[in-house]
Amino acid sequence: MSTDYQKAREDLGRRLRGLRVESPYGPLTGTALAQQLGWPQSKISKLENGRQTPTAEDLRAWAEATGQAGAFDELHGRLKGFESHIRSWRRQLAAGHRPVQDTWNTLVDDTSTLHVWESFGVSGMLQTADYARHIFEDYAALQNSPRDAEDAVRARMRRQGWLYRPGKRLNLLMWEGALRAQICPPAVLVAQLDRLLGIVGMDTVHLGIVPWEATLKLPPANAFWIFDDRLVVTEDWHAELWLDDADSLALYQRVWATLSESAVFGPDAQKVISRVRHSIKI
Questions:
Q1: Which class would CATH give 96-279?
Q2: Is the sign of the CA dihedral 182, 187, 193, 195 positive or negative?
Q3: Which of 5, 82, 93, 167 could bond to 145 as cystine, CB 3.0-4.6 Å?
Q4: What is the reported pTM?
Q5: Nearest to 252 by CA among 215, 271, 278, 226
Q6: Residue 254 to residues 10, 115, 190, 250: CA-CA distances in angstroms?
Q7: CATH superfamily placement of domain 3-84
Q8: Torsion of Cα atoms, 171 then 175 then 180 then 183, to 10°
Q9: What is the distance, to the nearest Å, from the Cα of residue 176 to the centroid of all Cα atoms in its chain?
Q10: If DSSP codes are grouped into helix, strand and coil, which group holds residue 67?
Q11: Which of 207, 4, 210, 56 minimizes the C-alpha distance to 119?
């Protein structure tokens, strides 16, 4: 977890503790506040010690229960401030994948140059509809989110129109493992690899593949996206991390450049993709 994010969560926890002990009703114990809110006492402890992220509803209930309802706006502002960097999947997917895809479409639309590293699957910018559908269905099952795969697929396919606009550039690196990951039926994966073969040489796409046998200067860790020189987005199982500080941008740019030293491009990239394609048994 981001150190800055955790510090912000701990700071919010200290503020919550302050509201509890400085209540105009008199100092409240954690146990008394938990009973008043109908929460387990452990939740009070986790929130105050920065071990759990509160919801907006938690903050409103806390402010009201401590007799300081007017503090909610400040508390909520703090929450929104650090959640702009850590975007939990639980909250993002509360209404399904379609709204998340719409957010990404806007983000990509406002970008001229993308630098992308994919280590576990084919980039959404180049996915076929069938491949994308399997991704959305599997993640919806994992996150117990609304099943809106068809709407999400349509939104993702619209994003790919960006590739055909003048002045746009996708610099994409993929590990060979991302090509081989059978996260969909073999026939769907073969069609997806055929799509990649057709992309090589497209003037708005610079596609590099890091083969199994390549010497790596860095491990093929999490995927990430760099949007121009303004934002990096990476993700884990629990959340997306949005980073816009100069140090993080510079770090991820160095990571991308280092990984690219192990990649092959053009006809050599096509050879790797073809090798993977012919290894798949339908």
A1: alpha beta
A2: negative
A3: 93
A4: 0.75
A5: 226
A6: 31, 11, 32, 6
A7: lambda repressor-like DNA-binding domains (1.10.260.40)
A8: -70
A9: 21
A10: coil
A11: 210
Q: How is residue 160 written in tokens?
A: 């790919």
Structure tokens at 77: 């502002």
The token duo for 274 is: 């073809």
Question: Which CA distances in Å does 72 have to 22, 33, 95?
Answer: 15, 16, 25
Residue 38 neighbours by CB distance under 10 Å? 7
